[in-house]
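Data card: per-record layout.
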Amino acid sequence: MNLTFQGISKDLMKGILELESQLGFKVIENGLPVRVEKTVENVIEVRLVNNQGAIRYCDDIHFFRALGLFIEATRNQTSFEIKEEPQFKMNGAMFDCSRNGVLKPETVKTFIRYMATMGLNMLMLYTEDTYTIESEPYFGYLRGRYTNSELKEIDDYAYSFGIEVIPCIQTLAHLSSYLRWSHTANIQDTEDVLLIRNKETYNFIDKMIQSAASPFRTNRIHIGMDEAHGLGRGKFLDRFGKEDRFNLMTQHLKEVMKITNKLELKPMVWSDMYFRVWSETNAYYDLDINIPKEVVRDIPKGVQLVYWDYYNEKEDFYINFIQKHADFGSKPVFAGGIWTWNGPTIHYEKTFNTTNAALSACKQENVKEVFATLWGDDGSESNYFFALLGLQLFAEHGYSKTIDSEKVKRRFEFCTGGDFNAFLALGKGDVHSAADWHKLIPDNPTKYLLWQDILLGLFDKNIENLGFSNHYRSIYEELEHHIKKDSRWTSLYEFTSRLCLLLSLKSEMGLKLFYLYQKNMKEELQEVSNKELKVLHDRVNGLKKAHREEWMKNNKPFGWEVLDIRYGGLIARIETTQKRITDYVEGKIECIDELEADKLYYDPSIKKGLGKESKYRRIASANVF
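The structure for this 625-residue chain is written out next.
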């Protein structure tokens, strides 16, 4: 398709040219004429009448959303008029680049192009220590930290699409990766939390904020401060004694805001600590919390609270909690979640349930700034491109008062070139009939069945007689159907297909070995060892290679060594299992001690259900790592 734009700015043209290949159009002199008009109205209008196109838009990001709508509509219509009303002032995404997976700048640019077509106008790269402080060589050392020039390049690129890049760091907790180094002892409260009421700490925070903010145009900055559970409980306690944690949070925030004020920055913080302190159970989502008004008045003005919630599924809950945040003086920024952090793939059931409830509540309560978080907990096992459908869901909420599932599907397939049903299939691993995905944290069998040891089988009791082999086989067959079609996302389908084929064999392997051993079926045990465990060994190795290829394509190499070690450990344990079986069958050992132990539920308090575990070190072994 050939287009000619009339009334277009040079800045917009930069972004337009970047989208030609992705959206399948070309800008030429004698193309279909499209008149472009910038307006003060908060509206998007797209028309094609008598072979004359028109786009009206307010913000730059709305133009790129409109461009996509225009091109999509011309594929099957010769005349049309489309109108949309943006629901949010800010709607974007935050990518976790602190849990080993640091996205390459080119990968970030790819996401920016997809976000622009969707109409998302804000990007955060969550960086605990993965940005550069010139005077601190150990800050982000061997962690794939971004250079200032890389971040400036990302900011320039996003600007050409009307996307604001906001630095997103930590200035209190979540700093264990840096605080591991011995020279940081003077600024540590605990291994994860900075020591407040300490001059050296604030000198360091000053360096952090200046370094994090300097590459970007924006005057906004996210300074974190969530989950500081150790605040005042380490060296601070030894030095000053026990003090009220709410007051400590407020004191610290005031000191940090002296720095942001000096630099003319507008800060935002995660809100959870202000709620946890007043909860009798130290819970964030406690509807019985009552924060005294005089305490609220002491919180410094000029900071935005970010209400993060990726868990609740009821619209009324979000409305209630948004109102509790409003008691602090203003509407919060809302941060939802696309579930990339609970295993090697994604959980779309949980993503859709929480997002639909949350963003509907935000619109009802007139919350104007929202963003999706993509976390990489426990090693960034998942690929953030799995989350594109979740980003589309956020985008469609941002341009419609009520969500239209058919429009989400249609827009996703146009904006990304992905297959809607294929992407849903990528998220089916944890959606087993016995799984509870309505819990705040849903069951995650895919992660623990991938990494659990087949001899020790910490989760075998949880999945007994539940047909997990058939569950993963069915997803494998569904994905094989999509792999046969030509798609830019074939590598995502292939990785998940390999994973499911592996788990169709591995998921119940421990139970099979246990059964054969208990029945003293030595010949059958040896056959499983010689054939099935050999196949499993090959499938693990194949999955590792596919995973490594995707990682190296999208991320900096630092951090992959952790997954190399996990896959290598899995392969080594398969080999040890084969050796143990052979030694037993040949009479070299009297028993296989690991298969003598009874199978117990992973969580002693839960005698049924699949259960969950997010930490690899707690999945692979009951012993000390």
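Known properties of this structure: Residues 90-315+330-346+367-386 form a domain with the TIM Barrel fold (CATH 3.20.20.80). The first helix runs from residue 10 to 23.

See the next section for split statistics.
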